Amino acid sequence: MVGCCPRLEVIFADGAYAGEPLAQWVDQTGGWRLQVVEKPKNQKGFSVLPKRWVVERTFAWLMRHRRLARDYETDPKSSETWIRLAMIRLMLRRLDPVA
C-alpha cells in the first residue's frame, strides 16, 4: 500500500474513529500515523477544528458532481475512479478556467 501513496504520512480522522485497533491497522497497512481531531472538552457550540475544514471542503467539491452525490457504485474501484475523475476535472478547471 505504501507504493500507492508515497507522500502520505498522516491520516486525520474524526473523533468517532478514535481507538487503538484502527491506529494499529493504519500503521501496519501503510506505515502511516493516525491523528484523531477531537473538539475541546469544554466547547459549546460550533468552532472550526484544525484540518477538519480541509476534509469538509474537499467533500463539498466532490458533492458538486451528481454521480458522487449518492453512493451508486457497488465496486470500490469504480467509486475511486469516479472520485479521481472529479478531482482531475477540478484541477483542469483551475489550470484553464475558460475551458
Describe the model.
With 99 residues, the protein is mainly alpha-helical. The chain is 43% helix and 10% strand. It contains 3 helices and 2 strands, in the order E-H-E-H-H. It has helices at residues 20-30, 52-63, 76-95, and strands at residues 10-14, 33-37. Strands 1-2 form a two-stranded parallel ribbon. Helix 1 (20-30) links the parallel strand 1 (10-14) and strand 2. It is globular, with a radius of gyration of 16 Å.
Mean pLDDT: 85
Instruction: State the separation between the terminal residues, measured CA to CA.
Output: 35 Å
Give the count of helical stretches: 3
- Could you name the ranges where pLDDT drops below 50 across 5 or more consecutive residues? none
Largest sheet: 2 strands, parallel
Alpha carbon gyration radius = 16 Å
Q: What portion of the residues fall into strands of 2 or more residues?
A: 5-15%
Describe the structure concisely for a colleague.
The protein is built from three helices and two strands.
